[in-house]
Amino acid sequence: MTTTPGTTAVEDRFYEGRWAASDPTRGSLRNWLVKKERFFLRWLRGRSGRLLDLGCGGGWAWLASGRVAVGVDVSWTSLRAAARLYRGAVQARWDALPFRDGSFDTVFSSDVLGHVPLDEKDAVWAELRRILRPGGLTLHYVEADSADPLMRLAKRSPDLYARHVVAPEGHIGMETPAATLARFRRCGFEPVDEQAVYRLLMYLPRATLLFDNEYRQRSQALDLLARIAGLLQRTRLTTLAGNVALSALMEVADRVLPASWANGVLVAYRKPSATSATAPSHPVE
Fold first, then answer.
1. Residues 133 and 156 both lie in one domain
2. CA 230 to CA 27: how far, in whole Å?
């Protein structure tokens, strides 16, 4: 585990000790049921070489399967856990990564880029492109600023939205799904797969996290949602059944509801090589 010059500037009390547990799964049933994990498994299957896990937390065993994985995070607790899975674990700023140009065949992140402040995003995207080899693949789940009815309702109380939607997970840099995709393209990445996901629907624990609080006194609809989520999570069996049912409903919702209702985007982009043609695009509808 290593550090880089200026590390003390990136030590952040908010992140220290959060998301520090390692994920030991390597293509489990749960990985295939969770939409974003299924996306990553599909794109990483059979892919070797060097991979950077940006904002790695405690690391994911699957990422180290058949490839050389390196993790970057700001939390020492997370990096100690990730170091047990990955070839390297580095504390560094995301806008000043301590790697040579073209160091990685794959760059990966999940639930990370929505934490980057808006005025720092272009610098971070530039670093992602710099460290990726020509022709390399970058894969991300990026949290999005959704316009779905639940979020529009939540935003009617700006104080609660800041306290219970943005603050608990540090989502200080969320953009609309369309703006996120446009940023990748503007920063020089070729689209391979772009999906606006989690349109309106969310898993049970997330509904509880966001709305089982003061929102219940402000909105009857959010109170009802929190009550239902709580009832379904009374046992492990009902929690599992509820989340499996939601996974199936998400597949339908992500096909028929507006892309602006997405709470995140799943993306695969390629760094152009000098001789590459434009990669095939799968635009969000």
1. yes
2. 29
DSSP label at 67?
S
- C-alpha distances (whole Å) from 98 to each of 4, 73, 109, 128, 131 are 7, 12, 17, 12, 9
Residue 208's φ and ψ, nearest 5 degrees, are -65, -45
Task: Produce one character per residue of 228-262: b if its CB has 16 or more CB atoms within 10 Å, e if not.
Answer: ebeebbeeeeebeebbeebbeebeebbeebebbbb
* Each residue's pLDDT tens digit, 219-235: 999 999 999 999 999 99
Measured CA distances, 52 to 66, 78, 186, 191, 262 (Å): 14, 15, 22, 19, 26
3-state SS, residue 269: strand
pLDDT in tens, 153-207: 999 999 999 999 999 999 999 999 999 999 999 999 999 999 999 999 999 999 9
Element (H, E) at 88: strand 88-91
> How far are the Cα atoms of 5, 182, 268 from residue 247, in angstroms, in the given order?
43, 27, 21
Query: Has residue 277 been placed in a domain?
Result: no
Q: Cβ(154)–Cβ(160) under 8 Å?
A: yes
Q: What is the pLDDT of residue 59?
A: 98
Domain that holds residue 240: 201-255
CB 55 within 8 A of CB 72: yes
**What is the distance between the alpha carbons of residues 207 and 65, in angstroms, rounded to a whole number?**
32
**279, part of any domain:** no
Residues 92 and 190 in one domain: yes
93 DSSP 8-state letter: -
- Lookup: tokens for 232: 């379904």
8 Å CB contact between 265 and 184: no
261 lies in some domain: yes
104-110 and 50-54 strand pairing: parallel
pTM of the model: 0.91
